[in-house]
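Question: Now follow the chain.
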Amino acid sequence: MRVLQSSVLATILLVLMGCTGESRTEPVHGAVMLSDGQPLTEGTVEFELIGTQNPVTASGEIQADGSYELGTFAPKDGAVPGKHRVAVVSDFRIGTEQERPGLVPEPLLDPRYREFKTSGLEFEVSPGENVYNIQVEYAKKKNGK
């Protein structure tokens, strides 16, 4: 009975420690700055691991000073090592201008940053601390400016 209890305990500890290596994360943080040098003061930064059958995503909330810290399995636990596509989401739109005339604000960021496939942002997460400062551009105004 004692051997069985020890085996069960050892198995539980191995699972909790992430013995498969798939759950290993590395610290990732930085800041999101607009093209004029001002910090982006709200939103999220999302990293998606490239080249895996089931993409793993890490995300972090952008703070008032533009800083972020990623988490994958728990808040601020980092990102899985490897190459990542990155999205920055700042405008949380609900509805359309036709559904809510005058109530939907113009987006602050260029919409290309909202999606991994169009953002043009990629970073390599390596063992150890990873610091990635991200510069984003403003959205073009409806009047073309």
Observations:
- Residues 24-136 form a domain with the Immunoglobulin-like fold (CATH 2.60.40.1120).
- The mean pLDDT is 83.
- Residues 18 and 24 are 7 Å apart (CA to CA).
